[in-house]
């Protein structure tokens, strides 16, 4: 068994078997991360560049740690402190890096499709760490891993994805993945933040009433309001958003059932999640971060073995 | 196809290996048994069951180790990892590694690397069911061996276990 793809550009290109292989390999890496020595020599002949054209805390550190735990050599590139600021193109930048004998590229870019463009022009394996409003495949994989770890399965699981669906690459990757694994999905949020025709396009349910969505689901994956991607006002104020679509302890307790709360980070506290929920007993937000390293190790390990 | 061990011989061999291990480590104090995934654990399961009937059952610490991430041929095709389960430290323990067939020695080399990530054992011994003695590529030898055989590279030793293959036997293919 091996992956059906040479790159990880999006969940869209993966098969169900690919996803299962990544998740089961991640389980083994999670065990590695509990050992006294949390490191294996698998990728010690591999050099990986983390190419970040957009800011990141979790994803960049998580990838860097995953690479180091696999014994790979790591280069870090941040657009703001590089010659990209002098106008060097993406392709020139990457070709220059690759000429220094780099094997894999982990990239984040604000333009949707940037990693797909690179994959066509360079020989190295590419891992998409988030491209614009398109996909964020490793986030969806770690979300699925965390759901499966907490609730035992993905098949038949009821997942509500709540908030800024329109601008969220996390939402799209999650929807592709959960559909492939047989989970049920409801999208919830204000109509202005939910793309038109999403029900038909992705075969998901849409619910504009937050409480109804929460009552239906086993897991609520709450997304960040992405103000940096909204170039026109889509709701009147953050306070109003919090009143109508923010999740607080009182609301959760009124459901009469326990649901799992997830968030890909960074959290806008007091907007989409109140602190009493984010830090509360139903939240697995920090488990998601922990699992991220194991999932990214699995992705890098499996892709490195495709390069042959 | 030639039979190396029949079902009865295999049972006797497992019993003998268990007794030999006890002979060298009377109380099994500070001794840890580690079966190698995926096929070595059938041998280690049987030997541990045998040993638990011979000493205080609680005295035996038993773990399972997968060496996939430590292989020296990672880039030559994908290997699927199995689970590792060593819920205790190996610091200053006598570790007895168990595998079904000792062939090139490369798996054991990887296992020795992997073991160090769980602490520094005071001693490591190796127990195998079948030792293909003329096929070694590394200077590694067993301390306890069920049967030593002379084979050529084109031959294959197949170890079948009732738990998985419905029959207990070792054959040369």
Give the uncertain stretches of chain A in residue-range form: none
The rounded distance between the terminal residues' Cα atoms of chain A is 15 Å
The computed structural class of chain B is: alpha/beta
How much of the sequence lies in strands of chain A comes to 5-15%
Mean pLDDT of chain B: 92
**Main beta-sheet strand count, sense and barrel state of chain B:** 5 strands, parallel
Return the CATH class of chain B. Answer: Alpha Beta
Order of helices and strands of chain B, N to C? EHEHEEHEEEHE
Helix content of chain B: 25-40%
Largest sheet of chain A: 5 strands, parallel
What does the model show?
The complex is a heterodimer of chains A (308) and B (173). With 308 residues, chain A is of the alpha/beta class. Chain A is 41% helix and 15% strand. Chain A has 2 domains: 142 residues, Aspartate/ornithine carbamoyltransferase (Rossmann fold, 3-Layer(aba) Sandwich), CATH 3.40.50.1370; 152 residues, Aspartate/ornithine carbamoyltransferase (Rossmann fold, 3-Layer(aba) Sandwich), CATH 3.40.50.1370. Chain A has 12 helices and 9 strands. A 5-stranded parallel sheet of chain A has the order 7-6-5-8-9. In chain A, helix 2 packs across helix 12, helix 5 crosses helix 6 and helix 5 packs across helix 12. The two termini of chain A are 15 Å apart. Chain B is an alpha/beta fold and 173 residues long. In chain B, 27% of the residues lie in helices and 28% in strands. The interface between A and B is medium-sized, with 25 and 23 residues.
């Amino acid at each position: 068994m091996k992956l059906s793809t040479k790159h990880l550009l999006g969940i869209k290109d993966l098969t169900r078997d690919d996803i299962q292989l990544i998740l089961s390999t991640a389980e083994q890496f999670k065990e590695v991360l509990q050992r006294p020595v949390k490191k294996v020599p698998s990728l010690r002949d591999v050099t990986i560049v983390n190419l970040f054209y957009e800011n990141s805390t979790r994803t960049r550190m998580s990838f860097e740690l995953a690479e180091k735990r696999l014994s790979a050599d790591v280069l870090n590139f941040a657009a703001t402190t590089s010659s990209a600021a002098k106008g060097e193109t993406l392709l020139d930048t990457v070709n220059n890096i690759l000429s220094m004998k780099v094997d894999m590229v982990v990239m984040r870019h604000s333009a949707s499709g940037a990693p797909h463009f690179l994959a066509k022009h360079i020989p190295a394996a590419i891992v998409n760490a988030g491209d614009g409003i398109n996909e964020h495949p490793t986030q969806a994989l770690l979300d699925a891993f965390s759901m499966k770890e907490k609730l035992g399965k993905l098949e038949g699981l009821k997942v509500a994805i709540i908030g800024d669906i329109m601008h969220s690459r996390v939402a799209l990757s999650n929807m592709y993945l959960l559909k492939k694994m047989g989970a049920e999905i409801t999208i919830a949020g204000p109509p202005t933040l939910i793309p038109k025709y999403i029900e038909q396009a992705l075969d998901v349910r849409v619910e504009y009433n937050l409480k109804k969505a929460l009552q239906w689901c086993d897991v609520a994956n709450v997304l960040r309001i992405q103000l940096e991607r909204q170039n026109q006002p889509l709701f009147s104020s953050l306070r109003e958003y919090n009143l109508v679509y923010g999740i607080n302890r009182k609301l959760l307790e009124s459901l009469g059932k326990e649901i799992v709360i997830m968030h890909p980070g960074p959290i806008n506290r007091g907007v989409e999640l109140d602190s009493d929920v984010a830090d509360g007993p139903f939240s697995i937000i920090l488990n998601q971060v922990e699992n991220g390293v194991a999932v990214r190790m699995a992705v890098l390990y499996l892709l490195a073995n495709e390069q042959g | 196809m030639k039979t190396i061990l029949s079902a009865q011989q295999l049972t006797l061999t497992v019993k003998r290996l268990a007794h030999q291990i006890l002979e060298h480590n009377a109380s099994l104090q500070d001794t840890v048994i580690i079966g190698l995934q995926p096929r070595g654990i059938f041998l280690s399961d049987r030997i541990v069951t045998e040993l638990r009937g011979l000493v205080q059952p609680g005295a035996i610490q038993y773990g399972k180790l997968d060496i996939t991430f430590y292989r020296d041929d990672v880039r030559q095709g994908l290997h699927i990892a199995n689970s590792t389960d060593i819920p205790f430290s190996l610091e200053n323990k006598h570790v007895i590694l168990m595998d079904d067939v000792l062939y090139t020695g490369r798996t054991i080399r990887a296992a020795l690397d992997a073991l160090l990530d769980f602490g520094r054992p005071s001693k490591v011994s190796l127990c195998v069911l079948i030792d293909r003695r003329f096929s070694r590529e590394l200077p590694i030898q067993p301390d306890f061996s069920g049967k030593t055989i002379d084979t050529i590279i084109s031959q294959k030793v197949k170890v079948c276990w009732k738990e998985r293959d419905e029959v207990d036997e070792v054959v040369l293919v």
